[in-house]
Amino acid sequence: xxxxxxxxxxxxxxxxxxxxxxxxxxxxxxxxxxxxxxxxxxxxxxxxxxxxxxxxxxxxxxxxxxxxxxxxxxxxxxxxxxxxxxxxxxxxxxxxxxxxxxxxxxxxxxxxxxxxxxxxxxxxxxxxxxxxxxxxxxxxxxxxxxxxxxxxxxxxxxxxxxxxxxxxxxxxxxxxxxxxxxxxxxxxxxxxxxxxxxxxxxxxxxxxxxxxxxxxxxxxxxxxxxxxxxxxxxxxxxxxxxxxxxxxxxxxxxxxxxxxxxxxx
Length: 265
Fold this sequence. Notes:
This protein is of the alpha+beta class. The chain folds into four domains: about 45 residues, no CATH class; about 80 residues, Single Sheet (N-terminal domain of TfIIb), CATH 2.20.25; about 55 residues, no CATH class; about 55 residues, no CATH class. The chain has nine helices and nine strands. The protein has a five-stranded antiparallel beta sheet with strand order 3-7-6-5-4. A hairpin with a 2-residue loop joins strand 1 and strand 2. About 5% of the residues have low confidence. InterPro entries: Transposase_MuDR (IPR004332). It comes from Rosa chinensis.
């Protein structure tokens, strides 16, 4: 009980006084304190040992929002870092204003518990960056609890964390993303979020399918202009105009084939 009490109160050493009575005589004996620092784990066993805190890449998210005057290179960066900040601390927020040049966010519990947390940021006309102009970074609600799952931890946030992995390995599976995200960032994400985040990451790296398809017309003109005699056949579904197949035969390649055919005669 003594060691349990000391652990609860986070005491590093304890003074013990022994009161001895006998033969009508009372004598006070004091044991020297701090003569030896004792690890309570040696007495309480492995079940009571303090667990070593594991470091995650998400630990730095809690430092993304500091003070009035913080600078962000556009609204997109502020939104991303604000989401990660809320996830790391364990609270939710809502946007009252969410424009390219102005952002106003308040705690999600402002209506139910009257929480005072809020943030305002405005864009500077000189450089286009957003600066925090007003910040109450103290929550008066009871909803600030960090958990392994968070409503704001969607595909937009996860995309920024896995883009490098997707670029290195396009065959990365959603369940592999889920497992690595848990071990690296310390949060649980669903299969759906992992799948959508991978799709978003591919679009950010290579562009969307629609953007790529729209460039085929430009590519056709460039091929026919730079390689006279080339063949370029693009087939699509008549009803939906969806891509089916593409055949390209460069004029230079045809000339080489014809020359080799003539040489062999």
